[in-house]
Every structure is written in C-alpha cells, then in structure tokens.
Amino acid sequence: MHYNYLKTFCFLILTVSQFACKRNKIQKSISEIPKKEDVVSIPDSTQNLVITPKRELELQESDFEHLKLKTKIDFRSPVFNQSFPANIHIRKDSIIWISVSLGIEAARAKITPDSIFFMDRINKKYYNMSLNELSRQFNFDLNFNLFQSLLVGNLPIPYSDSDSLSFNSLYTSIFQVKNDIRIENQIDNLNHKLSTILAQNKNGKSKLGISYSSYTEANGFVVPQLILAKIDESKSGELKTSTLNLEHAKFDFADHDLRYPYNIPKSYEKGIIEF
Predict the structure, then answer these.
(1) What does each C-alpha distance from 226 to 26, 43, 71, 220, 240 come to in angstroms?
(2) What is the per-residue DSSP string for 182-217?
C-alpha cells in the first residue's frame, strides 16, 4: 500500500459529482456505465431553459444526524485498481470517518468541513490535505457537503430559485451553475430520488458523473445501494479516466453519536501526497 490508497479515498469522498442514470446512458465521452437508453448531455448554457411555473419540484432526500454504513469499494484508474470493504461513520455536516480492512485494518480516513486526514497502517504513514488543495488537483470545487451527499444520494448543491428545471416523462432535471461548473441533476419521477448527476467544467477539461440505483428502504428513508462514479480529466492533451463503484450492504441511521477514532501513533511518519 502507498499513497494511491489516499487517492482512492480522495476519489471516494470528493467523489466526484456525477454519472449515468439507471434509465439513461451518459454521453460516451464521460461514461460507459451500462445503464439504459437515452443520451443525456450537459447544455452549454442554462440561460435558455424555462422553468415551468405550474409544476413543483418533487424531491425526497434523507435527513439524519448519525449514519453508519458497511460498503464495498471498487476503484479503477490508469495506475491503480483495488477492491476492499469499508466501514463508514457520518456525523451530519461535521465528520466522515472511514476504515478499510484487508484482513486487518489497512487504512483509516477522516474528512472534516475543511480537510482530509489519512493513515496508512501498513506502511505507518499519515497524510493531510485541505479540501481547497484537493479541489485544485481535480479542477473541481470539492466540499464536505458534496462528499456527504454522495454517500446517501442527496443533492450536493441544495436547490434554489436561481436553478432551472426541465421535465420529461422519466425524470426531472435541475440545472445549476456553481463557479465554473455546470451541473445537471436528474430526479426520478417515480421515487422522486436523485438518480444521476452530470457535471463538467466550462472549459470541458474535467467531466464527472454519478448514478444511483438499487434503492432500498432503511429507517424510513429510501436510499441507493449502488453508486457508480466516473471522472474524466484532460491534461496535456491526454484523457485520464478513473471510476469508483460503491455498494452499500448496510445502512444504520443511529439515534446516538458514533465513534470516530483517529489518533496518529508517534512512530508514524508524515507522507507527501503525489498526484
């Protein structure tokens, strides 16, 4: 194990905003997740979109204070492929804690509203990175709410009156622009849950996608068990693609606080993150 485990966690938690819906197939430039038929594209501008005044947005989201997940993570990139189980604890709007086991605990991560902390227990090293720095590495504005929302299938950016809506028989699209990022969120018209997010920089050099599927009920909430994510980065004329699949095996919406242990042993050395 080396710093690529950190990149795995970064991709997970950043994770990337956005991908192919269980009813749609994303444009091939950013996706080949085998979901259904329709082609979805991100418009160059949201200025010509018309909000339909007679229809209200129907969106079901999961609200919680404490959440425990058991998850299988599969990460693929040009230089690193790995699958592993993880335990994830979340205190809403405060902390995300992740423990990876490969027979023994191999790695531990903690995400706060401004930073990511990571311990490589095999090589006895630890790493720290601010979310601002991570955002610069991936050319996307990454924040804690994005990571938190990714794991439970909520909107990464809350809906506001400045957003545009578009309706069809299968899904409702919410179009948003944040900084230099254009985003389309697709809401399933049957269960009113977020099913797909598509995002790209205005310069088109970074494209991201997430799809949510296999919904189940847990503690009164409808939640996705499968999350498929992908990011395309164009650097120096070369396209690099990484994918992340999350499969939640268990949801536990707790009514009490959880444990988030993260104490760095004195014998550990601080590592340098190389992207």
Answers:
(1) 17, 27, 10, 18, 23
(2) EEEEEEETTT--EEEEEEEETTSSEEEEEEEEEEEE
Whole-number Cα distances in Å, 170 to 39, 81, 166, 167: 13, 35, 11, 8
Q: For 212, phi and psi rounded to 5 degrees?
A: -115, 135
Average pLDDT, the chain: 78
Across the range 125-133, mean pLDDT stands at: 91
Q: What residue ranges in the chain does DSSP mark as E strands?
A: 24-26, 38-40, 66-76, 81-91, 95-102, 104-111, 115-120, 125-130, 164-167, 171-178, 181-188, 194-201, 206-218, 221-235, 238-254, 269-270
Q: What is the pLDDT of residues 62-75, one digit of tens each?
A: 889 999 999 998 88
Nearest Cα neighbor of 125 from 42, 249, 1 is 1
Pair 232, 206: CB distance under 8 Å: yes
State the DSSP code for 68: E
Q: pLDDT per residue over 24-44, tens digit each?
A: 333 333 333 333 333 333 344
Ordered by where they begin, the domains of the chain are: 4-256 (2.50.20.10)
Give the pTM: 0.76
